[in-house]
Amino acid sequence: MDADKRYYTRYVVFLEGRVATEKGVTFPVEIVDISAEGARLKTDSQVILNKGDIINLVIKWKSSIKAKAEIRWVKNEKFHTEFGIMFTEMDMANREALSSLISEFALASLSDLYTR
């Protein structure tokens, strides 16, 4: 998705997570950036991912945040794969935890601006 079309601000983060595909394959990921509607993930695992695949994601934070998501794009590099996801299902408790996570990073980025 073109950055100009995004409704929510993305925040650069360095969080660990775990993905499970609908075919039962699980692998670790690094969450590179995140917003209320999706995230960019990176993995060193040798996995086959396709645009449109549905995944289950667990984000390791103060409490685990669980969501179902659709893969929107995939970029295979020599030693890793990056892919973008859009959250499709998340219960209220996980949505609130995600909002709290994003708020924390948003406030941190604001303080960075004011302390320069």
From TrEMBL:
<dbReference type="Pfam" id="PF07238">
    <property type="entry name" value="PilZ"/>
</dbReference>
<protein>
    <submittedName>
        <fullName>PilZ domain-containing protein</fullName>
    </submittedName>
</protein>
<dbReference type="InterPro" id="IPR009875">
    <property type="entry name" value="PilZ_domain"/>
</dbReference>
<dbReference type="GO" id="GO:0035438">
    <property type="term" value="F:cyclic-di-GMP binding"/>
</dbReference>
<feature type="domain" description="PilZ">
    <location>
        <begin position="5"/>
        <end position="102"/>
    </location>
</feature>
